[in-house]
Protein backbone atom coordinates (compact mmCIF):
# COMPACT_ATOMS: atom_id res chain seq x y z
CA UNK A 1 0.00 0.00 0.00
CA UNK A 2 1.18 3.49 -0.78
CA UNK A 3 -0.01 6.35 1.38
CA UNK A 4 -0.87 9.35 -0.74
CA UNK A 5 -0.29 12.78 0.76
CA UNK A 6 -1.82 15.99 -0.52
CA UNK A 7 0.67 18.32 -2.16
CA UNK A 8 0.34 22.06 -2.35
CA UNK A 9 0.64 22.00 -6.14
CA UNK A 10 -2.09 19.37 -6.52
CA UNK A 11 -4.50 21.11 -4.16
CA UNK A 12 -4.28 24.60 -5.64
CA UNK A 13 -4.45 23.67 -9.34
CA UNK A 14 -8.25 24.06 -9.33
CA UNK A 15 -9.19 20.38 -9.10
CA UNK A 16 -10.00 20.68 -5.39
CA UNK A 17 -11.78 24.01 -4.89
CA UNK A 18 -12.59 25.22 -1.40
CA UNK A 19 -16.19 24.72 -0.35
CA UNK A 20 -18.27 27.26 1.56
CA UNK A 21 -20.10 26.08 4.69
CA UNK A 22 -22.68 27.99 6.72
CA UNK A 23 -23.59 27.33 10.33
CA UNK A 24 -26.38 28.92 12.33
CA UNK A 25 -25.14 29.53 15.89
CA UNK A 26 -28.55 30.26 17.35
CA UNK A 27 -29.00 28.20 20.53
CA UNK A 28 -25.82 26.17 19.93
CA UNK A 29 -23.15 25.63 22.61
CA UNK A 30 -19.98 27.66 22.06
CA UNK A 31 -17.42 24.87 22.55
CA UNK A 32 -19.22 22.31 20.40
CA UNK A 33 -19.67 24.71 17.53
CA UNK A 34 -16.03 25.90 17.78
CA UNK A 35 -14.63 22.36 17.51
CA UNK A 36 -16.67 21.66 14.36
CA UNK A 37 -15.59 24.97 12.79
CA UNK A 38 -11.93 24.29 13.59
CA UNK A 39 -12.20 20.85 12.00
CA UNK A 40 -13.61 22.25 8.75
CA UNK A 41 -11.13 25.16 8.63
CA UNK A 42 -8.22 22.71 8.87
CA UNK A 43 -9.73 20.35 6.29
CA UNK A 44 -9.91 17.33 8.58
CA UNK A 45 -13.35 16.45 7.22
CA UNK A 46 -11.82 15.64 3.80
CA UNK A 47 -10.20 12.42 2.68
CA UNK A 48 -7.27 14.37 1.19
CA UNK A 49 -6.32 15.92 4.56
CA UNK A 50 -2.62 16.32 5.26
CA UNK A 51 -1.34 18.24 8.24
CA UNK A 52 1.32 20.09 6.23
CA UNK A 53 -1.02 21.34 3.44
CA UNK A 54 -3.86 23.82 3.86
CA UNK A 55 -6.86 21.80 2.64
CA UNK A 56 -9.55 23.62 4.64
CA UNK A 57 -12.75 25.29 3.53
CA UNK A 58 -14.52 28.59 4.19
CA UNK A 59 -16.94 28.77 7.13
CA UNK A 60 -19.68 31.38 7.60
CA UNK A 61 -21.23 31.71 11.06
CA UNK A 62 -24.51 33.59 11.37
CA UNK A 63 -26.45 34.64 14.49
CA UNK A 64 -23.28 34.88 16.58
CA UNK A 65 -25.16 37.01 19.09
CA UNK A 66 -27.45 34.08 19.97
CA UNK A 67 -24.77 31.58 21.02
CA UNK A 68 -25.19 29.64 24.26
CA UNK A 69 -22.66 28.80 26.99
CA UNK A 70 -23.21 26.21 29.70
CA UNK A 71 -23.05 26.60 33.45
CA UNK A 72 -22.23 29.94 35.05
CA UNK A 73 -19.82 30.95 32.29
CA UNK A 74 -22.09 33.79 31.24
CA UNK A 75 -21.36 35.54 34.54
CA UNK A 76 -17.92 34.17 35.47
CA UNK A 77 -15.94 33.82 32.23
CA UNK A 78 -13.34 36.55 31.68
CA UNK A 79 -11.55 37.44 28.43
CA UNK A 80 -8.18 39.20 28.52
CA UNK A 81 -6.27 41.26 25.98
CA UNK A 82 -3.11 43.34 26.23
CA UNK A 83 -2.45 46.70 24.59
CA UNK A 84 1.30 46.14 24.35
CA UNK A 85 2.14 48.82 26.89
CA UNK A 86 3.27 48.19 30.48
CA UNK A 87 0.21 47.69 32.68
CA UNK A 88 -2.00 47.56 29.61
CA UNK A 89 -3.97 44.40 30.36
CA UNK A 90 -7.70 44.73 29.76
CA UNK A 91 -10.33 42.29 30.99
CA UNK A 92 -13.92 41.81 29.88
CA UNK A 93 -16.66 39.59 31.27
CA UNK A 94 -18.48 37.30 28.85
CA UNK A 95 -21.73 39.25 29.00
CA UNK A 96 -19.90 42.57 28.39
CA UNK A 97 -18.16 41.20 25.32
CA UNK A 98 -21.41 39.62 24.14
CA UNK A 99 -23.12 43.03 24.17
CA UNK A 100 -20.38 44.82 22.21
CA UNK A 101 -18.61 42.23 20.02
CA UNK A 102 -20.27 38.78 20.00
CA UNK A 103 -18.29 37.77 16.89
CA UNK A 104 -15.01 37.99 18.85
CA UNK A 105 -16.22 35.29 21.23
CA UNK A 106 -16.58 32.73 18.44
CA UNK A 107 -13.34 33.86 16.76
CA UNK A 108 -11.45 33.45 20.04
CA UNK A 109 -12.92 30.02 20.77
CA UNK A 110 -12.02 28.72 17.30
CA UNK A 111 -8.54 30.27 17.46
CA UNK A 112 -7.92 28.50 20.77
CA UNK A 113 -8.80 25.13 19.21
CA UNK A 114 -6.43 25.55 16.25
CA UNK A 115 -2.73 24.63 16.40
CA UNK A 116 -0.43 27.58 16.94
CA UNK A 117 1.39 27.75 13.59
CA UNK A 118 1.45 29.85 10.42
CA UNK A 119 -0.68 27.40 8.44
CA UNK A 120 -3.60 27.73 10.80
CA UNK A 121 -3.23 31.48 11.26
CA UNK A 122 -3.92 31.70 7.53
CA UNK A 123 -6.86 29.34 7.77
CA UNK A 124 -8.49 31.56 10.41
CA UNK A 125 -8.82 34.19 7.68
CA UNK A 126 -11.41 31.91 6.04
CA UNK A 127 -13.71 32.16 9.06
CA UNK A 128 -16.47 34.74 8.56
CA UNK A 129 -18.61 35.55 11.62
CA UNK A 130 -21.74 37.72 11.40
CA UNK A 131 -24.01 39.00 14.16
CA UNK A 132 -27.34 38.75 12.33
CA UNK A 133 -28.64 36.27 9.81
CA UNK A 134 -27.52 38.37 6.82
CA UNK A 135 -24.16 37.84 5.14
CA UNK A 136 -22.60 39.06 1.88
CA UNK A 137 -21.70 35.59 0.56
CA UNK A 138 -24.97 34.58 -1.13
CA UNK A 139 -23.25 34.21 -4.50
CA UNK A 140 -21.17 31.23 -3.26
CA UNK A 141 -22.46 27.68 -3.39
CA UNK A 142 -23.05 27.32 0.33
CA UNK A 143 -23.65 24.01 2.11
CA UNK A 144 -25.19 23.76 5.56
CA UNK A 145 -22.96 22.51 8.38
CA UNK A 146 -24.75 20.71 11.20
CA UNK A 147 -23.52 20.34 14.77
Question: What are the salient characteristics of this protein?
Answer:
alpha/beta, Ribosomal Protein L13p, Chain: A, 4-stranded parallel β-sheet, two-stranded antiparallel sheet, 6 helices
Task: Produce the secondary structure layout.
Elements: H1 8-11, E1 20-24, H2 30-42, E2 58-62, H3 73-76, E3 78-82, E4 89-93, H4 94-100, H5 102-113, H6 118-123, E5 127-129, E6 142-144
Parallel strand pairs: 1-2, 1-6, 2-5
Antiparallel strand pairs: 3-4
Helix pairs in contact: 2-5, 4-5
Give a nutshell description of this structure.
By secondary structure, the protein is of the alpha/beta class. 31% of the residues lie in helices and 18% in strands.
Shape: globular
CATH superfamily: Ribosomal protein L13
Q: Describe the biggest sheet?
A: 4 strands, parallel
Low-confidence region ranges: none
Order of strands, main sheet, comes to: 5-2-1-6
Q: On the 0-100 scale, what is the average pLDDT?
A: 91
Radius of gyration: 17 Å
Helices and strands, in order, run as: HEHEHEEHHHEE
The CATH class turns out to be Alpha Beta
Number of helices: 6
- Taken together, the total number of domains comes to 1
Beta strand %:
15-25%
Percentage of helical residues?
A: 25-40%
* Termini gap: 34 Å
Derived from helix and strand composition plus strand pairing, the structural class reads alpha/beta
CATH topology: Ribosomal Protein L13p, Chain: A
Please tally the β strands and state the result.
6
The CATH architecture can be named as Alpha-Beta Complex
Describe what you observe in this structure.
With 147 residues, the protein is α/β, with parallel strands linked by helices. The protein has a single domain (16-144), classed as Ribosomal Protein L13p, Chain: A (Alpha-Beta Complex), CATH 3.90.1180.10. It has helices at 8-11, 30-42, 73-76, 94-100, 102-113, 118-123, and strands at residues 20-24, 58-62, 78-82, 89-93, 127-129, 142-144. The strands form 2 sheets. Strands 5-2-1-6 form a 4-stranded parallel beta sheet, covered by helices on one side. A two-stranded antiparallel sheet has the order 3-4. Helix 2 packs across helix 5 (102-113) and helix 4 (94-100) packs across helix 5 (102-113). It is globular, with a radius of gyration of 17 Å. The mean pLDDT is 91.
Amino acid sequence: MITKFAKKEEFYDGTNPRAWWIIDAEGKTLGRIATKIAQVLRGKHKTIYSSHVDTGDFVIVINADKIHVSGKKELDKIYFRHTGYPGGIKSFKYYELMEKHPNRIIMGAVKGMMPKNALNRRSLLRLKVYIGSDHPHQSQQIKTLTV
